[in-house]
Specification:
Blueprint (H helix, E strand, L loop, with lengths): L2 E6 L5 H9 L11 H11 L3 H6 L4 E7 L6 E13 L2 H6 L7 E12 L8 H17 L6 E6 L4 H5 L4 E2 L1 H6 L6 E6 L14
Parallel strand pairs: 4-5
Antiparallel strand pairs: 1-2, 2-3, 3-4, 5-7, 6-7
Length: 195
């Protein structure tokens, strides 16, 4: 099965809107997962639209090429920065300032029917590929993600580390702040294009 990655430039209409409204990352796997429900709502309820309209974030749909009306997954990214602790700064070569340019993975979701078949990895590869293309022209060092605690191990296997500064300063949060060092992750197979 082949996939197509498509940027959303405005609020979806017609067949694409119906496909977005049918997207479900919870299904039978995560019916009570509040964070997964937020991921659903962000896309299905059109919460991405404001970011697109005001040039604050970009949302991409992963569509099934064989059935162009089916959303397999999606992600939303935005420009950001991450503050590193002194130890974290030493680990990345001691930059002269604590805030480092980053791209934030605002949302990422895979339809629950696709769970376990590598689609999440493919979607993350697309995100990393996009970040690497941006890095060619804009100084960004990290890909940031606020991770569902149930998925922390999945991200850790892909070389994401916890952000100690953000974790220390945002106690009581329901997600875990993690980062991927784009400068050090080049040996990964992450970043291959989907199409």
């Amino acid at each position: 099965m082949g996939f197509t990655l498509r940027p959303l430039r405005a609020q979806a209409e017609g067949q694409l809107l119906a496909a977005i409204e049918a997207f479900d990352c919870c299904g039978d796997l995560h019916p009570d997962d509040e964070i997964a429900q937020e991921v659903n709502a962000f896309l299905r309820d059109g919460l991405y639209v404001s970011g697109v309209v005001h040039s604050l974030s970009s949302t991409y749909l992963l569509l099934d090429e064989e059935d162009g009306a089916r959303v397999i997954g999606y992600f939303t990214v935005a420009v950001d920065a991450v503050r590193l602790t002194g130890t974290e700064r030493r680990d990345v070569g001691e930059p002269p300032f604590p805030d480092i340019g980053a791209i934030r993975l605002v949302m990422i979701g895979v339809d629950w029917n696709e769970s376990g078949n590598g689609t999440g990895s493919q979607l993350l590869e697309a995100v990393v590929g996009l970040c690497r293309r941006v890095r060619e022209d804009v100084a960004v060092r990290f890909l940031l993600a606020d991770v569902n605690p149930t998925q922390e191990g999945w991200y850790a296997k892909r070389q994401f580390l916890r952000n100690r500064h953000e974790s220390e300063n945002r106690a009581g949060r329901t997600t875990i702040s993690m980062r991927l060092d784009l400068a050090k992750s080049t040996e990964l197979k992450l970043g291959e294009p989907l199409n």
